Amino acid sequence: MESKYQYLTFIGLRFNVANCLSILVTALLVFLFTFLLSRKLTVKPGKGQNVLEYLIDFTNGIVKSIMPGDEGKPFYFYIFVLFTFILFANILGLFFQVRVNGFTFTKSPTADPMVTMPLAMITLLMSHYFSVQKFGFKGYLHNFASPVSFLLPVNLIEEFTNFLTLSLRLYGNIYAGEVLIGLLIMVANSMGVVSVVLAAPMTMIWQGFSVFIGAIQAYVFSILSCVYFSRKLEREE
Amino acid sequence: MMNGSVIAAIDVASLGDSLFLLVVFILLLLLVKHFAWGPVTKMMDDRAKKINADLDGAETSRAQAEKMAAQRQSELKNSKSEAIQIVNTAKVNGEKRRQVILDAAQSDAESVKTKAREDAQQARTEALNSARNDVAQISVDIAEKLIGKELSVSDQKDLIDAYIKGLTSADETR
C-alpha cells in the first residue's frame, strides 16, 4: 500500500504535512497526559499521580541502571520526556490514521527517518555537551584518542554509526509495522468477505504486537541514549 | 517493491519535518518541565524527606519511651524499698515510744509507792508521839489524883519517859 502525503514548502524547506500533524498530535497527547495526571498533587498520591510517578520511577530506573549515582541526575527529565514521546508516537499510528482524498494526514511520526534522526541528534549532542562540561574541551577531544591514539578513526566513525543505528533502528521497526498493517489491510480488501474474515484476526494480532514493539523501541531508544551519555562521561584515563 | 518504497521515502524526505520536530520537542520539554515534571518530582522529594523525618522521629520517640519505661521501673523499685524503710522506722519509733511510756509508768508507780510509804511512816511517828504525850499527861493526872498533890509535869517527865521507854521496848520485844 502506497501512502501519499501532502507537502508544503516554506522558506525553501519542505514540510510533510502528515509528519508535522502527527508530531503535533503526539506532543499534545504527551503534554495533556502529563499535565492532567499532575493536577491536585498530594503527599499521599491519588490515582493519576500514582500513574505518573510510576512512569517517572520507571524512566529514572532506566537511567539508574546505566548510571547509578548522581551523574545520571541531569538526564532523568530528558529520558522521561523522550520515552513518553516515542512511546506515544509509536502507538499513535496503530489506531489513529486519518486519510483524506488518498492523502495520509496522521501516522506514526517515528515511521520517518527525518523524525527519528533529530531525536537521535538531540541525544548525541547532549552527550557531547555533557562530556565537554565534565572534562573541558581538551579532555573531551582527548577522549576520542583513548584508550590508544590509533583508535581515533574508529571512535570518530562510531559517533556516526551511533547516530545512524539509534535513529534508523527506531524508524525501521515502526515503519515495518506500518507497512505490514498496510499490507494486511490490502489483503482484507482484496477478496471481499472471505479475506476480511481471514485478515481481521491477523491485523489484530499484528497491532497488539506493534504496541509491544513500540514500547520496546521506546525503551531501547531511552536505554541506548543513557549508554551514550554514560560512555561520554566515563572515558577518561 | 519494499525496497523501492524505502528509497522513495528517503527521496521525498523533507528537512522541514526535522526542524519542526526539534521545535516541538524542545517546546514539549519546556512545557512538561514547568507543568508536570517540576511539581511531581518536588512532591516526590518532599515525600522522601517526610518519610525520612518520620522514621527519625519514630526512632527518637521510641528511645524516649524506652527511657521513660526504665525510669518508671526504677522508681517503682525505689518506692518499694522506701515503703519498707518507712514501715521499719515506724516500727522502731513505736518500740521506742512504748519503752518510754513503760519507763515513765514504772517510775511513776515507784514514786507513788515511796511517797505512800513515807506518808505511812510519818503518820505512824506522829501517832506515836501524840500517844506518848497523852500517856504522860494521863499518868500525871492519875498520879495527882492519887497523891492529891500537884505534880509538875516537867518534874516528872523524865521519870515518865523512862517508864514509857521501858514500856515500848517491852512492847517491841514482845
TrEMBL record, chain A:
The keyword Transport applies. SUPFAM superfamilies: F1F0 ATP synthase subunit A. It is a multi-pass membrane protein. PROSITE patterns: ATPASE_A (PS00449). CDD domains: ATP-synt_Fo_a_6. The chain crosses the membrane at residues 15-37, 75-95, 115-132, 179-199, 205-229. Belongs to the ATPase A chain family. Key component of the proton channel; it plays a direct role in the translocation of protons across the membrane. PANTHER family: ATP SYNTHASE SUBUNIT A, CHLOROPLASTIC. HAMAP family: ATP_synth_a_bact. This is ATP synthase subunit a. It comes from Lapidilactobacillus mulanensis. The gene is atpB.
